[in-house]
Design goal:
By secondary structure, this protein is an all-alpha fold. Helices cover about 50% and strands about 0% of the residues. The chain contains four helices and no strands. Helix 3 (about 70-75) packs antiparallel against helix 4. The chain is elongated and about 60 Å long.
Length: about 100
């Protein structure tokens, strides 16, 4: 199969440039939770409170030490999607001595 034809079939409809008024139907997007994550809508109140308290302690310690945490976490976020692994979180925490 021709590469150009294959790319057109995968990403759009063929010969779309010949019919610019044609509406391309939107592709379906499915949001699937990442493995190992939890849905916060189903988290217990105790769990939510524990997370909030932990984040508050981290904020307080970072403010006391005047540490900029965002750049530290961004260094580990290779895909720029706002997610890092637990091990990467631990590494940042040890590097900046916040925990």
């Amino acid at each position: 199969m021709d590469v150009n034809l294959y790319l057109h079939l995968v990403f759009t409809q063929p010969n779309l440039e010949k019919t610019p008024e044609h509406r391309v139907p939107p592709s379906e997007i499915f949001r699937v939770p990442k493995p190992g994550t939890m849905d916060w809508r189903h988290a217990s109140d105790e769990h939510k409170q524990l997370v909030e308290e932990t984040l508050a302690r981290l904020r307080e310690r970072a403010d006391q030490r005047r540490v900029l945490l965002k750049p530290q976490f961004q260094d580990f976020d290779n895909h720029n999607n706002g997610h890092i692994t637990r091990q990467q979180f631990r590494q940042v925490s040890q590097d900046v001595v916040v925990c």
